Every structure is written in C-alpha cells, then in structure tokens.
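Morning - zinc ion inputs below, output right after.
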Amino acid sequence: MEVRFWGVRGSVAVSGAHSARIGGNTSCLEVTSQGKRLILDAGTGLRALGDQMLREQNLEAALLWSHLHWDHVQGFPFFAPAYVPGARLTLYGPGPDGATALRDVLDRQMQPPSFPVPLGAMRSQMTFATARDGEPFEWGPFRITPVDLPHPQGCLGYRIEADGRSFFYATDVEMSLDELSPRIARAMEGVDALCLDAQYTPDEYAGKVGPSRRGWGHSTAIEAAKIGAAVNARRLFLFHHDPAHNDETVERMAEEARAYCEVAEPAREGKQILVTA
Ligand SMILES: [Zn+2]
Ligand SMILES: [Zn+2]
C-alpha cells in the first residue's frame, strides 16, 4: 500500500516561497494498492492528482470524504477525470445520508453565481455511496472502516487496510490525549501510519497568540504527537497545516512534537510513502 500527499494544508490554500517545502494545497491524499486507487478528500490538491490520472489513463477511483467543509470539496470542479466519459468514480459521502449530502454540496458549489459549469457537465460514471461510522466496507483490495471524530458538523476518520498493512486518516479533529475516546483509540491502535490534524501550537490553541482556537475543530501538534505515541502508531504525519504557518513554523512544530512521539514528521505535499511494517 502506498500513500501520496497531494494537499496537506488546512482551511484555505496558500502559495509562495514561504510554503514551498511543505506545500500549499488543501487536503487530498491518494492511497494505492494492486493497481487500485483511493482518494481521500477533494481539497485543491485534487486538481494535480486528476491531471496525473489523465496522463496514466487510469480513470477509476473511489473518493472518500471526511466531511464537507469547503477545504475538502473545492478541488472537485477542477478534477479533470470527472468530465471524461468512461471514467468510473465511486464517491462516498460521510454520515447517515452521506450520498445525498455529498451530491448536494458538489452540485451547489458548481451552480451560478459560484461556478460557470454545472455538476451535470461531468460526464464520467459517478456512483454516490454512503460511508457510515462503524460500518466497514470493501473497495478493491481495501478494507475501509469509517470512525466518527469530534469536529463541528462532524468528520469521519478512515482506517484503511490492504496488503496486510494499515493506514489511518484523521484530518479535522479536535482532541487531546486526555479527551481521546477509547473507541477512537482502538480504531487507531497499532497502525503502520497515522495522519493526524496538528494545526495549532499550544499557545495558539490557548489564545495566548491571537484568539483562542478552542472549539474550532482542530488539534495541536503536541496533542497529536501524544495521541500518536499512545496508540502505538509506527509513523505519524502531522497534517492540516495552518495557512498562517510558514515552512519554518511547521518544521519547528514537528521538531517539538518529536519530544512526545519520535516518529512524528510533517506531512509534505508531493511526498509518497510505502506503508510497511
Ligand atoms: Zn479542513
Ligand atoms: Zn473541517
């Protein structure tokens, strides 16, 4: 199983020399195994992934959404494979009525006056499906288990297993080790790689620098590291970097996090990892 980061930024995309090493696109990951492709979230990183799929002429994928906040859907109108007849896409919306909720959001964001081309102009074969908390399903070689995470309007984490390896994607979650529910801890336990929200510094979260971020739905890199260590993750990728943080800040936060979890590192756009034991 391989994982590639196409977008690692939270909230809104950034660009410029100050973010060149970490990357500026919003959430999008690609997980591949045995020639099959999963896509996690449709932030602005999805655009370049779609172009890569066109170059490969491999136009089949399942897209899983953690939730429908804008930094996780905005890349979809620019996902070129969706316009290609013959492309086959399965789109999993999160929550009890995920298929309907996802279709509504993708439809609305492409309606006037927001966008010139409607969802109906996408001529690929799109099948809408639902991902529900605690109900595992299989797609290709992947076994996928959605898990509810604490976030405003909710968010699903995904435990993904293939080739005897495991990966857990947990973007957009506000937790500390003290608040970590046993249910989430069990779902994350022993994963080969864990991707975890680490947007804030402790001072930002507490309101010592600007407003308090408590209740905004994101975690500190320190708490992410404590959780990564507590669940015995073999690798930890700090994710959903704050748009106000330049490369030096993100790298310093990861360095500080390593005091609590020595396998912590910042997720970087373009980085591809082989998930191994
Ligand atoms: Zn987000
Ligand atoms: Zn969110």
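Note: The mean pLDDT is 97.

O.
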